[in-house]
Amino acid sequence: MATHHANAVLPDEPEKATLEGKNKILGFWLFLGGETVLFGSLFATFIALRDQVNGGPTSQQLFDMPLVAAATLILLTSSMTSVMATLALHKKNLKMIQVWLTITVLLGIGFLALEIYEFVHYVHEGHKISTSAFGSAFYTLVGFHGGHVAFGILWIILLQLSAVKKGLTVVTAPKFYLASLYWHFIDVVWVFIFTVVYLMGMIGGKVG
Amino acid sequence: MGAHAHNEEVRKPKVKHDSPKRHVVAFIGSLVLTALAFIAVAYEVIPAGFTVPFIVILAFVQAFFQLFVWMHMDQKGHEYARISIFAGLFFILAAIIVFIFWVWV
């Protein structure tokens, strides 16, 4: 272990300073490749089934643009604040890392709250996971994304707590870097969700 | 903490590449692309048949913006990152095409 080394001088880009850190980043990108396929298959399912409403409400009747726009803005901003945390990491400034990650977590919680409100509202409108193929595909895809957001929030909070005790070292730096990568990935997935699920779902009615 | 002022001079160029400005530009770019997509759908400013391809292209542009700038996929040492993301995208496109044309419902 190279931990004692960290107490002296932290190297530049501390997340890549050790072989272990480099391997973690490499492994994480392979994981993200797998996540891409996971979400891709859910997207493909959704695109194939989105018109099969089985007498339930259609996407044109359900979706509300201001709500989606607000959720998008919140998540995009949180992606921005997590990149600020990575920049603070490169400046080896633990305090600023904690500040930016706290903002990221708060925005993430705001996003989740909106999504929960949205789902509850849909269920009241008669749009449930068992209503139709559209319902199943919708809740699986969007819910899986929401699950990733919830997991990311927990992960970042735990990292922040452990960093209070352990400080910024070559061991903790890769963890911050990866959490930030994960959070960006969640935002990239959301870009396709708001485009394919929500915006395309709102167009459908006007065209057809 | 404490001893971080030391080697900032020694290897500065490596970190300099990662200036906050680039990331703020990426953020503003993402905001503009997002706004364009929402406006295109809300106000029907472009021909209806063209709206879907238009917003999908916007989504891809924004996704690559974020992957390359925010997730540093443009930097050296990210060859495997590119391979895994592009391999993933390849499978996705195959899956989407197959699902659209071959699912009987």
UniProtKB/TrEMBL annotation, chain A:
UniProt-annotated location(s): Cell membrane
Transmembrane annotation, as ranges: 26-47, 67-87, 99-117, 137-161, 181-203
Gene Ontology molecular-function annotations: cytochrome-c oxidase activity
GO CC annotation: plasma membrane
Source organism (scientific name): Brevibacillus gelatini
Name used for this protein in its record: Cytochrome (Ubi)quinol oxidase subunit III
Pfam families recorded: COX3
Domain of life of the native organism: Bacteria
GO biological process, one term: aerobic electron transport chain
Topology term for the membrane: Multi-pass membrane protein
Heme-copper oxidase subunit III family profile domain: residues covered: 26-202
Annotated keywords: Cell membrane, Membrane, Transmembrane, Transmembrane helix
Biological classification of the source: Bacteria, Bacillati, Bacillota, Bacilli, Bacillales
UniProtKB/TrEMBL annotation, chain B:
Keywords: Cell membrane, Membrane, Transmembrane, Transmembrane helix
Family matches, as InterPro entries: Cyt_c_oxidase_su4_prok, Cytochrome_c_oxidase_bac_sub4
Transmembrane as UniProt keyword: yes
GO cellular component: cytochrome o ubiquinol oxidase complex; plasma membrane
Molecular function per GO: cytochrome bo3 ubiquinol oxidase activity; proton transmembrane transporter activity
Membrane topology annotation: Multi-pass membrane protein
Stretches that traverse the bilayer: 24-46, 52-71, 83-104
Pfam families membership: COX4_pro
GO biological process, one term: electron transport coupled proton transport
Keyword Transmembrane helix carried by entry: yes
Compartment list: Cell membrane
Highest taxon of source: Bacteria
Family listed: Belongs to the cytochrome c oxidase bacterial subunit 4 family.
Protein name according to UniProt: Cytochrome C oxidase subunit IV
